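Quick one from the shared queue. A colleague (R.T.) flagged MFS transporter as missing a structural entry in our internal table.

Convert sequence to structure tokens.
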Amino acid sequence: MANIGSRIERIPDNKYNRKLLVISGFGNTFDSMDIAMVAFVLPSIIGLWNLSSGQAGLLGSSVLIGYFFGALLSGYLGDKIGRKKVIMYTLVIYCLATLVSAFAGQWEHFFWLRIIAGFGTGGESAILAPYLAELIASKYRGKYIGALTGFHSFGYVAAAVLAYFIIPMSDNGWRLAIFITALPIFLVIYWRRVLPESPRWLESAGRLQEADQEMKKMEKSVEKALGEKLPAPAATTASPAAQQKGSFFALWKRAFVKKTIMLWVLWFSVIFSYYGFFTWLPTLLYNEGFEISKSFGFSILIYLAQIPGYFSAAFLNDMIGRKKVIVSYLGLASVSAFFLSQADASTAILIAGFFTSLFMVGAMAGMYTYTPEQYPTIIRSTGTGSASAFGRIGGLLAPIYIGFMYPILGFIGVFLMTTGVLFIGMISTLLLGDETKSKPLDEIADEKIDVDTKEEVDSIESSSEWKVN
């Protein structure tokens, strides 16, 4: 029996792949809508419960606190119990917590429920990219994972539109808006039926019969979409994975430590800049006397910039490579942030803000594609989740840090700092990253181990400390 990797690699682009993309993308859309909605309902909540600025700040960070733990734990569980189970469990957690939070009677209850909801959204977002990456042939993987990330933009725009029409309706408009973001709970029924478990993961866990069954279901669906039989898989000398074990500590083995450091620096710099930018930009502009920051059109324009940002990067992922996408988009985001720091007119602010948003999220599309490709199947989910979780530390710190530094550095200083942070992420990827464009996942893992660190792996295998093929 041919191994799972060779069977997936011979699958051409088709309607079934696009169906998987859309179904998985719904998860990212609703996750982002839930996260963004907190910012829109915060003014209503502050007035309702007479919150201090400190309490409001805690509520603003609540989702990200949960996001950190969700991303960290879901990565580990994804490698232990399977990708599909984690996707479904985290969806249920975030939907139920969000639903209950719509009826919260005190801000403390709302705070803890938003942390639980953030745990679900963080867990789901961290697992979706490695999951889809394992189902798509290498020739199309960059396009699909970049596009999957692009579904986040739909969530932010949907939250802005929903907030604009629903929240002003009544004093309880914010509760209705939160309630609507919990409706994806019904999606779990559909997911349970149509989403396959990752055959790569099943194979790596030694569940070869189940892996073969899932693969046959996928092949049947693909052949139905194509209207013809698939070609025979290429011959391979690789043997099926045999109940291998990985752990968080495996990320720091010599074979992966450079990649792990690079990814953690990249994720921290991008997420720090992203949340600092979107959290503080309207307030900073208003403090500088720009009324444009109060307009609904300004928020929509900044969010809409995410759509061409994500999908242009998704298109370029397979054309020029993930590393080049990340480096070029971060470089252009740095330039845009610099021009934003120098802007002194509304038109200049709109243009610079639009392109800062566009290039920042474009780098994220490359980053989400690039990260799962750095690790073999047994630690792919753990590696992706850990990098995402570390990035959320940046997301937590950015609003707090900018709040303290704005009185000292001013508007110019804050965005010059953002320029510098983005530049650090770019340099980290440029110096430490390797290109993974169009390479099969198995081949990428083999290169890291067999070429770069063969002696160490031989010693690990002989001592039975940790095994990976």
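The radius of gyration is 22 Å.
Residues 165 and 350 are 23 Å apart (CA to CA).
Added to the table.
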